Amino acid sequence: MRGVIAARASALYVALVMAAPALAQDGALGRNVEGLLVFARQTNPDYAAARSEADAAGERVGPAGALADPRFRMELRDITRSGEQNATLSPSQVGSTRYLLSQDLPWFGKRELKREIAELEADAASGRAQSAWSELAARIKVAHAQRYYLYRNESLTREILDLIARLEKVAQARYAGGLAAQQDVIRAQVEQTGMRSELLTLESERRQANARLNALLARPATAALAEPERLPPLPPPAKLDYAALEERVRSRNPVLSTEESRLKAAQKSRELAYRNRYPDFTVGFGPIQYQNAVKEWEVMVELNIPLQQSTRRAQERESEAMLAAAGSRKEAAANQVLAELSENLVAVEAARRLETLATTSLLPQAELGFRAALAGYETGKVDFATLLEAQRRIRQAKQSQIKAQSEAQIRLAAIEKLLGEEP
């Protein structure tokens, strides 16, 4: 099963490596969030580092449960032959030569516990890598939503600026005919100046948003990005039910998965600490050489005597405390994650309702009000201030619509980060 998953992951990674440069070259990068995620998965250095750390942790599993290297020992005894000769290091000329091949053997079950701890630590590292990707993906989705809002708001401001320019012409015509005061023309010009100032602010914010997104993609801050074309559709309300998502969050949230692995590793570490009450062994065997002949063989068993009870009890208390800390961290993480889930679900529903209200009520009403005000101004029934206020209401309604769409996507990105997937 692991082999199949690894093969699929490798195939996906190759596809991403091939697709990411093409996205940047054809100028499509930035149009939609899917392309941004594909590019970031292949280029972001933080995520690459987390993946490498997970790979490194996986490679520690085998050595953790392996035996230590055997040791070879050679002793040259009586190198002067009781003073009969000068000292020598030749095995055939000393009194005797002892050879010993030994192997350290931990107490029963210790190797298995060490391997299980390493496996759980590898699972935790994989969870951290998944958490790093979920965090990165959420930040990219938020940046895309913010860019969408800024681009659409800038486009809307330009449209309203053109509208006010046309209103200025209407005011100038009425002023030339003696039907309106010059103050109307001045008001239109002041309104245009204010909107041009807003355009400068929006342009600055847009460039800052592009720089932030390029940083997430590991690209130069000034690298070109395409204008965002759309936002992903929101899932239906039935899929954003708290009770259903709570179970998925508890079982799939990367942070909770990491804390669960840490908790299990702490439990195994406690078992290992108690297992250290028992001694470890060293076994060995070897021949004893006299001149040029092997005349004796020996077998040895060595063990450590666990007399330092105060040290071991301190280690056991440490393992108990670490286990309690791991349990508390998992509980705190679960509380935080579920609170964030509830908060973001409420915010998505509020944004959805605000968008519906702006689309079905505020915007149609504002457009009707503007047309009535324009007709009234042309006939002299309303003043120019009323007309400007009517166009401001149109702009506010459209801004509310765009902002609600962006806010819903930002909150949805937070939910997807908690789930580690799309809802």
Quick summary of this structure?
The protein is α+β, with helices and mostly antiparallel strands.
Low-pLDDT runs: 1-20
CATH fold description = Outer membrane efflux proteins (OEP)
* Strand order, largest beta sheet: 1-2-3-4
Determine the CATH superfamily. Outer membrane efflux proteins (OEP)
H/E topology pattern? HHHHEEHHHHEEHH
Looking at the overall shape, the CATH architecture is: Up-down Bundle
How many domains make up the coordinates?
Answer: 1
Question: How does this structure look, described?
Answer:
The protein is α+β, with helices and mostly antiparallel strands and 423 residues long. The protein has a single domain (2-66, 116-277, 310-419), classed as Outer membrane efflux proteins (OEP). Helices cover 70% and strands 9% of the residues. Strands 1-2-3-4 form a four-stranded antiparallel beta sheet, with no helix packed on it. α8 (254-275) packs antiparallel against α9. The longest helix is centred in the C-terminal third of the chain and has 70 residues, at 309-378. The model is unreliable at 1-20 (pLDDT under 50).
